[in-house]
Write a structure and sequence with these properties.
350 residues, 8-stranded antiparallel β-sheet, 10 helices, globular
Length: 350
Amino acid sequence: MKPTLVRRMIAAVLGNDSLNFVLTNHIPRRALTRLMARISRIEHPLFARPALALWQACSDLDLNEAKRRQFRSLHDCFIRELRPGARPFNPDPDTLCSPCDAIVGACGEITGDLVLQAKGMPYPLSELTGTPNIGDRYRGGRYLTLRITASMYHRFHAPDDARIEHVQYFPGDTWNVNPPALARVDRLFCRNERAAIRMRLQRDDTQILLVPVAAVLVASLRLHALDLTLHAGYRGPHALDCNHDVARGQEMGWFEHGSTIIMLVPAGFELHPHMLAGHRLRAGEVVFRRSASAADMAATRQTTRNQESPGVAACGLESLPLLRTRSSSCLTTFPPHISPNLPPGTGSTS
């Protein structure tokens, strides 16, 4: 059977929202997620090669931009790197870039604690982030949902020069995060396994949040700033203080498979006009722009900072490959019996 015909048949089945929801959610999600973790790491060529060929035949998986074309396992392909320069980041300092390849989901202004995961399906930001009254802090700001499909590039990057200050890990469920599920499962993002990453922009000390959310077959998140993988087997602290600088476009980590990143920014930013539900974008494209007044304030603060710290050179985009470091200044301490580098896995426990 030709690959294009297979894709059409799969698309026809999954195009029925009700059937899609049943097939991808009315299953033993956690057990299958743990099983997928093991299967995806099988490196024997008699399994890995046919599995990769089947994946390509049944999806729009495109490996033309991959740094390598040969992979030891499905997992090796899931977390693939791209060729240098494949995802240039817009250098405009008055913008924030997309941290990942994605399809735009719900987005808009933050007017209170509730925002939308889909039309008519709100969820509370305080529950998503574990921070009471966070809606007040981000009132007048913007939120943006970025969905990463199974065949997309799964690594994510810093939207701007920033300092990662804190990571809060939330164990949880593994509902699918596709549109049929978002339209049916109440507060889905708040139920799934996730991490809230608090970042402070170096340009003007603005605080933003990135919230990577796990999904069925993926509940494992690698974070370079912590030099560990958060997953079902993780038994370390869930509140992780951090002091780790990242440059615009620098890799922050990866998902084990497709999932979602929610961006929260305070007042002073506007969504790019192309940020409409269903729009496909690539890591490095502009998603937010500072308003004129906010940009002027940011420029003033940056000038003051440069005057107070002469000799500190800005890092150009051409040096980004050299910035991919796993060193960390995190303040987290682990009990003697806990290793921060537990073997990665998927699945979750509430």
